[in-house]
Design brief:
The complex is a heterotrimer of chains A (282), B (114) and C (123).
Chain A (H helix, E strand, L loop, with lengths): L1 H17 L11 H15 L17 H12 L4 H12 L24 E3 L4 E3 L1 H11 L11 H13 L12 H15 L9 H5 L6 E2 L2 E2 L12 E3 L4 E3 L1 H11 L10 H13 L9 E3 L1
Helix pairs in contact in A: 4-6, 7-10
Chain B lengths: L1 H17 L18 H20 L7 H13 L3 H24 L11
Chain C lengths: L1 H19 L11 H13 L28 H4 L3 H9 L21 H11 L3
Helix pairs in contact in C: 2-5, 4-5
The chains are: A mainly alpha (282), B mainly alpha (114), C mainly alpha (123).
């Protein structure tokens, strides 16, 4: 009798350790997360080198890759890179230019997003662009598309090959921002009750109708993106808004706290992958 | 044949109970079908309040604002029945969005990642 | 298979007849074929059930594969209420599911879900 009970207890204990429960955002550190996500995607898509994930769905979908490579030979975003370069070179009314805000180099991708300890917030490249404009008495730009995407395309193009290297400094506020982005990523949302992870982690590589769902890993590398569906360039936060609306949630403001923290989390996940924006997507 | 009838009857019973779950939806206090202006005004105030509460917890749904706008348009056109119906729907969305957000406050790495 | 399908249709039509008086908004004895047709329309409509985005269904074009193929539904869900509940709020049976709670979150009405169940029982 006693033996049976003991055995039962042992079995229960074993099964308790085998069946993992969902974790809270604060339960795991950024470093642990990085390993967990890497391992998960390596297992799901064996043999795909880390940097390949920067190509989004084309890293895992051979069929659409061919036409994508053909598009990238004569990229639709080329005129926007040129328009962005002209913006970079054009002096503001006060005689200064963007170079004065960005250490004279447009190759800034590797520096964003980052935690700004003084402002106690995540600063993205688009936010820094508008900060620069306002600091120089110029009107800020809309965050989703148009001129800001042009300039970001030029800056990203000049930064190609730099690696994503998002740091979460030892600062409780920075960690809170990261965890906030993580919680956003895994929280179900909208009338259809999907989280970002429902599609881009749990279902990566599967199909919604004929569309292959791209893996979360690498999602932060190629912005701004020329989407065939848009017929123009758009920023990462524009895409966030589109995703939220697809699950029938109200989208959040581009460059608001929610999306900046989300970008912080998402970009950190892709550390080590090269920035390869601008890029084209279906 | 006997078997078919029996299962048909069972299905029928199931069907007639099928409506039960529908009542899980919370309705606003005013009785349905009330087409007075006052009932609409109560409903639209409730809808806006629930929408605001949902937004405050990051749980607002995409179409809630559109429903409220449509309700206001219907009311402006004098169709208080339709307007109240839309306002009730919007209020229900607001409540569900709050409920959903509350259920997700502990979101983090799901077990399938391990 | 054919036999199962016709059996299901008979059962459903009888059921609709029995239930007509109590809950069907349409006139009692309304053609069950119409209900099934309506159920299929709601299931395929991208703004309604949009079931094809995740499930393979009979003659539906370009199905997704997040969920299992919708085949032999009567055999898999002998209890009609369980199938209905699965569409109403699948998280009750499986908290981790990706399937939206169509009824609970009011993406579909009770009547629409009933019609979808009628349609699914023909698969």
């Amino acid at each position: 009798m006693k033996m049976t009970q003991l055995a039962l207890t042992a079995i229960c204990a074993i099964s308790a350790t085998v069946v993992m429960a969902d974790k809270k955002a604060t339960d795991t550190s950024p470093a642990e997360d990085l390993k967990v996500y890497r391992d998960y995607f390596n297992k799901r898509f064996p043999g795909i080198p880390l940097n390949e994930f920067g190509n989004g769905v084309y890293a895992i979908d051979k069929v659409s890759r061919d036409s994508w490579e053909a598009i990238e030979e004569f990229p639709p975003y080329e005129p926007m890179i040129e328009a962005g370069e002209a913006m970079w070179n054009k002096p503001f009314a006060n005689g200064k230019s963007f170079a004065s805000c960005f250490g004279n180099s447009p190759a800034q991708r590797k520096n964003y997003p980052h935690w700004d300890a003084k402002r106690k917030m995540v600063v993205t490249m688009e936010l820094a662009i508008n900060d620069c404009l306002e600091a120089n008495g110029e009107k800020p730009l809309g965050y989703n598309k148009g001129k800001i995407a042009d300039l970001a395309a030029y800056m990203a193009y000049q930064s190609r090959g730099q690696k994503i290297d998002v740091q979460i400094p030892n600062d409780p506020d920075a960690l809170a921002a990261y965890n906030d982005g993580k919680a956003f990523y895994f929280a179900r949302r909208g009338q259809l009750n999907f989280s970002c992870a429902s599609c881009h982690m749990e279902s990566a590589g599967m199909h919604v109708r004929t569309d292959t769902l791209s893996p979360a890993l690498g999602h932060a590398s190629g912005w701004p993106v020329y989407r065939s569906k848009w017929g123009e360039l758009g920023t990462l936060h524009r895409r966030f808004g589109g995703c939220n609306e697809q699950v029938r949630a109200k989208k959040f403001k581009p460059q608001g706290k929610e999306y900046r923290n989300l970008e912080y989390f998402l970009a950190h996940m892709s550390n080590g992958i090269e920035y390869n924006g601008p890029s084209s997507r279906k | 044949m006997k078997k078919i009838l029996l299962s048909a009857a069972l299905v029928a019973i199931a069907l007639s109970f099928g409506g039960c779950a529908k009542h899980e939806m919370k309705e606003s206090a005013a009785p349905a079908g009330d087409t007075t202006k006052q009932a609409y005004e109560n409903a639209i105030a409730a809808a806006k309040s629930e929408q605001k509460k949902a937004a405050a917890v990051g749980g607002e749904w995409r179409d809630t604002g559109k429903m409220i706008k449509s309700a206001e348009e219907a009311a402006a056109a004098g169709d208080y029945g339709m307007a109240k119906g839309l306002a009730d729907k919007a209020a229900a969305q607001g409540r569900l969005g709050q409920e959903q957000a509350a259920s997700q406050v502990n979101a983090g790495n799901p077990s399938y990642l391990y | 298979m054919r036999k199962t399908a016709s059996f299901a249709t008979t059962a459903v039509s009888l059921a609709a007849l029995f239930a007509g008086a109590s809950m069907m908004p349409t006139a009692a004895g309304a053609a069950d074929a119409d209900t099934i047709k309506y159920g299929k329309e709601v299931a395929f409509d991208r703004k309604k059930g949009n079931c094809l985005s995740c499930h393979m269904i009979a003659d539906g074009e370009s199905p997704g594969d997040l969920g299992p193929p919708l085949i032999a539904m009567k055999a898999r869900f002998p209890d009609r209420e369980k199938l209905r509940a699965q569409i109403w709020d699948p998280m009750i049976a499986n908290p981790g599911t990706r399937m939206p709670p169509f009824g609970k979150y009011q993406a579909l009405s009770g009547k629409e879900i009933d019609a979808i169940v009628d349609y699914l029982y023909t698969l």
